[in-house]
Design goal:
Length: 429
Amino acid sequence: MENLLTMGPVPDVAPAAGPERRPRSVADLGMRASVLEDLALKALYQAGPMSTRELARQIRLGMDVTNELFARMRAEVLCQVTGMTGNTAQIAITSQGRARAQELLSRSQYAGAAPVPLESYVTQVRRQSVREVVVHATDVERAFSDLVVEERILRQIGTALNSGGSIFLHGPSGVGKTTIAEAIARVLALDDVWIPYAVEAGGQIIAVFDPVIHRQVEGREGDGHDERWVRCHRPSLIVGGELTIEMLDLQFNAATKFYVGPVQMKANNGVLIIDDFGRQRVRPEELLNRWVVPLDRGVDFLTLAGGNKIEIPFEMLVVFATNMEPGELVDAAFLRRMQTKVRVGYATEEQFCRIFRRVADAHGLPVEETALKEMVGVIRGTLQQELRACYPRDLINQICWTARYEDRPPKLDQDSLMAAVEAYFLTSS
């Protein structure tokens, strides 16, 4: 039977107080000293001789903790003092320490920031849950201020954000579902959350912080915070057709021999967008079967080497966006778990023209209203096409590319618009 490493009772030590408080001793870190000692030794082996202050900076621990680790390693003849710079020791690894570090690196090459215990990670993620965020109409209007979206859709999105549940965006292709999903993430992005560099669970290290996904908030950490954590905006992560079932579990790198957190772990406390839902390499029912418990109960189970499982929070807003019919993708039981369903339809002529003017303004181009109206008539009448929100961007791009080729300024006149329509749309002649 598989072992389950659950959260258990949260210890009443410094990590439970939150990352705002810097640990003053190894005991405050809430994890085995040997894990930290091994990490410090690998860092010293890889970087070469350094000061204890530099070592503290590399493993993201304060001087008090680093000095305590150094004293332990020195007592075991794993490192030695080579000199002093003021009150700071210059240290180097010994031959005995080098042999030990090589052995450790053969098991795991992780030598970055010290991890936080699984229990501390769970506690902090729960504190920062998107389910606790209160969203008002002004917050939604701010995030959607540069878009043309129906009031009905904004109201449904605002309601969904306050529920903390999943959102199912559906409708034809090209109507702006992905853009709306990204704007939903902007509603929450102003909040700060703490993201750990890594988490330790069952003796294994799981890298969590990803600078591509987690945007650090500069200048708000304070001098006394726990540097194993990074203050960031609420994360936003979008995955599309590349998503596989394997990406939903811990990613073990055979070369570095440590784990990287899956997409849902990196998206915790933020927004995870499943774009083009139904077109992934994993079947929709397989994905939803994998997430039936997380979506219902807010917990997920990840598998470590040897079959051991760990329980982590599933604390994010999941946005599914699809241009396929919902009934063809999932059954009624799964649709019930998606608390809010938002249909995004074609644009009206008035909405289409507003979008076109906004895109043109972003390019610094004036619009000839007569030419715009005529273009709309051609799209709807001659070409028998519905008005999609993506058309203004695509058509103006066509005009700009043509102008660049012809080495002239772009212009939104009748000739340019008709040429763009001819190049963009499929026609029978």
